[in-house]
Every structure is written in structure tokens, then in C-alpha cells.
Amino acid sequence: MKPVTPRDVDEVQAELRAWWAVRRDLPYSLSVLRTRRDRVIGRTGRFGRIWQFTNDIRALPPVDNEVVMLCLLTEPHAFEHVDRQTLIYAARRLGPDRLMLMLEGQRLIDDPDYEQSGVDPSSFILEHAADLLRPTDVPRLRALAEAKMDYRYVIAAAELAPKDGVAWLRAALSEPERWWPQDRIAWVLWVLAGDTVADTVSEWFFVPPESYPICPPSRSTFVSELLVRFDASDRRLLARLIDDERFPELDWPTLKRIAAGLNDNLLNTVVDPKALSGLSHPLGECNFHAWVADHPSEYPEKTAVVQAALADWANAIRASRQYLAEPSGGTP
Fold first, then answer.
1. Which pLDDT does position 36 carry in this prediction?
2. Integer Cα distance of 154 and 24 in angstroms
3. pLDDT of residue 310
4. 98 neighbors 109 (Cβ within 8 angstroms)
5. Lowest CB count within 10 Å: 3, 197, 227, 249, which one?
6. Is residue 125 assigned to a domain?
7. Under the phi-then-psi rule, with left for phi > 0, alpha for psi from -120 to 50, and beta for the rest, what region is 104?
């Protein structure tokens, strides 16, 4: 490690003086508030303290108040400590015109730390686009999607204009090299259009066009959404997937997720949970199918055990398929 010299200390002090000179007359600084927020969250009794911190932000001038709140309280480690509705109200006070400017990268506050701090409330704004933005904002969202190559803008535009959005999401689902992650696109397409896109979603599900392995696979994440919501249309799609002749060839994580989800939703043991958690292989779950296809002679005995178990899981899931047609699930 390089030793600290007096010259190094002088340089650091000069940088600190320059940093403070720009900020000392400002009513607040994002970087200072961010540090304070992190200290508040890290202390015992943080839930009461984070509300005090939120109240202090509210004391800032209008617009600054709302922008700072979105910038500092929508970051993942802070978001879990704040009421979502508080942030939605702050975004509504800003209004769609200002929110679109934020998405387009324009500064709404006079803070030298805005760009350098890395704060980015765009995920929150886009996640709640249906509540915060307008159908007239769709062309700008689509332009941002193309400029940033960001699937979140495609989804936000589709939710604001669902009649045309289904076609946009279908197109995005067919271009995985441009739009990723595919599971989010497939899920929003399914939520917007339901049974009318069952063919598209089913084909994507069985032929996930992923150029590189991800864990868990996109279709495993997608099927998790079906099993969490589990309404009538979700059950119909699950039944269709289970009936497909390609179903027994599904990857390990996806079969495991379906079996575990059906165990919970049907209130019956479709596959023994101990069998689901106890199955193992030196290659792991996510790499198993791809590696075995390329290296069939490695770990032959352990591979045979896993393949037999996956076949048993697929058969057990298919045996439970009849219960998916019942309005509330459940087995007699």
C-alpha cells in the first residue's frame, strides 16, 4: 500500500475545501443527506428515525422536497423502510411533466451532487407509470426505450397504452438480444392480454431464447409469478404448459419451482419438499442441463439419479394437473 505523505494530505484537504465551498451556502446537499440517511437506517430503532428523516425532507422547499424524497428513499436499502404510498404522493405532487423530465435526465433541483451521486428514481417512476404518467407520455417513453435500450420503458408505455402495448411487448419478447430480462416482459404481456396471448407466451416458455445461462432461468421466474397470483387464467396457462409434450424436458429450477408452488397452492404434497430440497449434483441446478448435454460422460451415476428424480417430478406434476381447473385449487 502506498504510504500517505504530507503532499497527499494537502491535496485531500484542498479537495475538501473546494467541495465545501460549493455547498456551504446551499440549504441542503444530496450527498450529505444520503450519508445521514444511511446512518439513520443503520441505527437501532431505525423505523422511528427514518420517519423523522422523512419529515426533515418535507421541510425543504416544494419540488426540492419531492425530488430529494424520490432520489433518496427509492433506493433498494432505503425503500424497505418507507411507506410506498408516501413516495407515490410525492411523485404525484411533482406531476407527470416533471417526472418525464426526470426520466429524460434533466435536473429539477440546483444541487451539484445530483449527477455525481448516482441517485436514480426512474425505476420507481416506471414501476408506477400507470398511476403517475399519462397516455400522452407514451411516445416519449418509447423514444427513451429505444435510446436507452431499457425494457422498463417498453413496459411502462405498454401499461399506459395497453391496446397497442400488447404488440410492443410481443415484439420485445421476440428480440431477447435487445430487451432483457424476458421474464418481466412475458409477465406484463400475460397480465395485459391473458388468454389471447397464451400461444405466444407458451412458445416463449418452452424455447426461452437466452444467449447465455442465467440463474434462475427466465421461465422459472415467470412461472413463479403465475404461482403467486394463481388466478383462473394463471391456472389455465399452467395446465396448458403441463400438458405440452415438451414439459418433461424442462430445466431443473423450473420443475422445482412448479412443484413447490403447487404444493403450496393445492394444499397437498405434489412432490415431497424434502425431495425438492435434497436433490443435488456437482454441477448445480442451473448448469445441469446445458453441461450434461455437452459432457454426458461426466458424473454419470449422479446425473442418472437427478434425471430420474426430475422425471418423477414431472410425472407427479402432471398427475396434479386436474386440480388446476378448480376455482380455488385444493385436492379432495
1. 80
2. 41
3. 97
4. no
5. 3
6. no
7. alpha
Query: In angstroms, rounded to a whole number, what is the distance separating the alpha carbons of residues 57 and 306?
Result: 55
Collapsing DSSP to helix, strand or coil, 117 comes out as coil
Query: For position 66, what pLDDT does the model report?
Result: 94
First to last CA, the chain: 69
Nearest to 151 by CA among 164, 160, 142, 138: 142
Name the grid cell of 269.
404434497
**Number of other CB atoms surrounding residue 244 within 10 Å:** 15
Q: Tell me the CA distances in angstroms from 143 to 53, 59, 107, 140, 151, one per residue in order.
A: 36, 36, 19, 5, 12
For the chain, the 3-state helix, strand and coil shares in percent, each to the nearest 5, are 70, 0, 30
In a domain, 199, yes or no: no
Q: What is the DSSP string of 85-154?
A: HHHHHHHHHHHHHHHHHHHTT---S--TTTTTT---THHHHHHTHHHHS-GGGHHHHHHHHHHHT-HHHH
126: cell is 416506471
Structural domain harbouring 273: 213-325
pLDDT of residue 328: 44
Is 320 within a domain?
Answer: yes
Of the candidates 255, 253, 249, 256, the residue with the CA atom closest to the CA atom of residue 216: 253
Cell matching residue 12: 485531500
Ramachandran quadrant class, 181 (left: phi over 0; alpha: psi -120 to 50; beta: rest): beta
Distances (CA, A) of 189 to 119, 150, 186, 196, 207: 29, 16, 5, 10, 17
* 185: in domain: no
Query: Which residues in the chain land under pLDDT 70?
Result: 1-7, 19-20, 22-27, 43-49, 115-118, 208-214, 326-332
pLDDT tens digits, 16-60: 777 667 666 666 777 778 878 878 777 644 555 677 778 888 888
* Predicted pLDDT at 331: 43
pLDDT at 73: 86
Three cell numbers written together for 143: 423514444
